[in-house]
Amino acid sequence: MNDIAASSFFDPQVIADPFDYYRAWMPKSPVVQLSEGMFLVLSYDLCSQATGDVETFSNNFQGTLSGAMAEDSDVAAILAEGWPQVDTLLTADPPTHTRFRKLVNLAFSMKRVAAIEEDMRGVVVDLIEKMAAKGDADFVRDFGIPLPVAMIASQIGMEGDLDRVKHWSDAFVDRLGRMIPKERELECAREVVEFQHYVKAKIDERRANRTDDLLSDLVYAEVDGERPLEDAEILSIMQQLMVAGNETTTSALAGGLLQLIKSPDQMAKAVAAADEGNERAIINLVEEVLRTESPTAGMWRMVLKDAELGGVQIPKGAMVQLRYAAANRDPAKYPDPDRFDIERANARSHLAFGKGIHMCVGNMLSRKEMAVAYSELLTRLTDFRVAEGHTPSWPPNMLLRGLTTLPISFRRRA
Ligand code: HEM
Known about the structure:
53% of the residues lie in helices and 10% in strands. By secondary structure, it is an alpha+beta fold. Protoporphyrin IX containing FE binds at residues 59, 89-90, 101, 152, 240-241, 244-245, 248-249, 252, 295-296, 299, 324, 352-354, 358, 360-362, 365-366.
């Protein structure tokens, strides 16, 4: 195991199943140099340290990563029919980030999440009943995808257009992270513009008539001394909420169910907690799923000045990937880190949502979706199994890790 080469991190097989890599490198070197100007940070303490030093480790990496695509003149011509892409949250540094984050925090409050809990439970129960009526399911397709899509859609007045939300979300993801053919690039650009015009119409509706949802909260958000958000800014935020909130929550929901299936003792404890209505135990289950699954396995930082991390010199201009998934299995923080233990005392300290100023703005929403989902699934269905002949697999992706399919069988509980 110890001879895994640093550069093999890019090997699609390692990206898909990186745990041996973490185990091999963590004790040897918590900061791994992958190539000239590219580093990987593995340990809990060093990932935390880097998230706290935003003057050195910048989130303004968008241009570096996707610049080539934006320069294509055909793509640019299509995008010109919409609104400019503005760096708002994930890819902005202070002071720009601070202003947007303050305004979005107003909209994305615990109050808003609490207000939608009953609707959320209704969506969850409905999805479970549909699966139960069919008798089997692809848990990703039939539950993991539609739940977060429905929840975000309801907050921007898109309830009637769920398929379009997933469609648009996929187009944004393709544009960001994957090597796609020109044909698809053009298609994605058209989707972006279509999304923008769709949401702009919703914004105008809310300016005329305030409604009780997140989009209205954003349109009317105002902090002392800050000007309200402009259309292009709201569009950028909406786009990020859609992209950041869908695939990640899907992966957490599905990965967590698979772990429960693979650990019958933990499944028994989780079922007991759900039956007793033991909310604290269900919340801890959610935290342990997030720790071990870490759907956002890593996130980039751009190094703005010469730095040192864990004794390794990192030059200005380098790209650093904070590997949250590895940090969450750091044995110095989590004894027996690969064990899925829903009673783990410090599960909630994980970095699955990052840390510091960029810590996930949707964390309360996805935590609530997961808690409601597991308590309803475990009280209504039983005997979950992975469908015979299916071996779960994870497609290689540099940043996100999640199942794309999980065929299961189950029974209704008596
Ligand atoms: C299990 C589900 C989720 C996971 C694992 C996750 C993970 C993360 C992580 C690790 C970050 C920090 C990135 C960094 O360090 O630069 C982040 C930021 C963010 N997330 Fe999430 N996320 C999830 C769900 C959501 C949801 C439901 C939404 C919205 C509906 C959302 C919206 C965002 C946004 C807008 C940011 C950028 C915040 C900022 O830069 O201030 N995420 N997320």
